[in-house]
Amino acid sequence: MKTVYLETVESTNSYCKEHLAELSDGTVVHAANQTSGRGRFSRKWIDLGRGNLFMSFVLKPHAKFRENYSNLTQYLSVVLCKVLDEYGVNPEIKWPNDVLVNGAKIAGILAETVVQGKKFRGIILGIGVNLNTEPQRLSSVKDKIITALNIEIGESIDLDAFRSRLTGKFFEHYEDFLEGGFSYIKNEYIKRACFLNREISVKVFDEEKRGFAEAVNDKGELILKNNEREFVLTIGDIL
């Protein structure tokens, strides 16, 4: 594993895409400050300042794109939960890859596939984790329920130690995940799921699907049932 440290960057994902040709497989890029972090569907990631994790993995696992690469965000959500376990909190996963603590979002994960022409060049897997902030800064955020690890456990978090734990656990079973796909993490993922076995609404682009969250299949897709209708969702936001 190689690491690249940046003092300030627009976003670690953007940096990785711009320098993908020169970054080797398994490189980890992290920054002290991120000015324009992004989440899924081009949403802005709320920056709580220094002391928080802004990081991207550069992954070039194969010459061709494989279906299970789309589950890398879910793999990372499980890995993050395992790290958070070590800090004494009880993390949960909201499909597909949001990680929550006490019902509040603590992390965001974004994967971007890079293709040139018809050739697959790699995947940039970005993650932001709220580790250190002040309660009044959280309360100033409107329309979003978020938290930070230091708020949850009542003490400041060593950023370098947290990052080391996360990258270590990510690569520990990364090859196993590539071989087994979502099935490799399915039991662990479902054990932490906070959305199953209840009525939910899911926004899929401009459409809203409502139904009973029955299961997550072997591809990591969400199975919703509404009377006799069944929806198999590959993307969306649980409302």
Order of helices and strands: EHEEHEEEEHHHHHEEEEE
Low-confidence stretches: none
How large is the radius of gyration?
A: 18 Å
Q: What is the CATH topology of the largest domain?
A: BirA Bifunctional Protein, domain 2
Strand content: 25-35%
- Largest sheet strand order: 1-2-3-7-6-5-4
Average the pLDDT over all residues and give the rounded result: 92
Structural class of the secondary structure composition? alpha+beta
Q: Into which percent range does the helicity of residues fall?
A: 25-40%
How many E-type strands? 12
Number of helices: 7
Assigned CATH class of the largest domain: Alpha Beta
Overall geometry comes to globular
Looking at this structure, what is the CATH superfamily of the largest domain?
Bira Bifunctional Protein, Domain 2
How would a textbook summarize the main sheet? 7 strands, mixed
In terms of topology, how is this protein built?
Layout: E1 3-9, H1 12-18, E2 28-34, E3 53-59, H2 72-85, E4 91-94, E5 98-101, E6 104-116, E7 119-129, H3 135-139, H4 149-153, H5 159-172, H6 174-180, H7 182-192, E8 199-204, E9 207-216, E10 222-226, E11 229-233, E12 237-238
Parallel strand pairs: 1-2
Antiparallel strand pairs: 2-3, 3-7, 4-5, 5-6, 6-7, 8-9, 8-12, 9-10, 10-11
Overview of this structure, please?
The protein has two domains: 3-192, BirA Bifunctional Protein, domain 2 (2-Layer Sandwich), CATH 3.30.930; 199-238. It starts with a strand and ends with a strand. The strands form two sheets. A seven-stranded mixed β-sheet has the order 1-2-3-7-6-5-4, sandwiched between helices. The protein is globular and about 55 Å long. The chain is of the alpha+beta class and 239 residues long. A hairpin with a 2-residue loop joins β5 (98-101) and β6. The longest helix has 14 residues, at 72-85. The chain has helices at residues 12-18, 72-85, 135-139, 149-153, 159-172, 174-180, 182-192; strands at 3-9, 28-34, 53-59, 91-94, 98-101, 104-116, 119-129, 199-204, 207-216, 222-226, 229-233, 237-238.
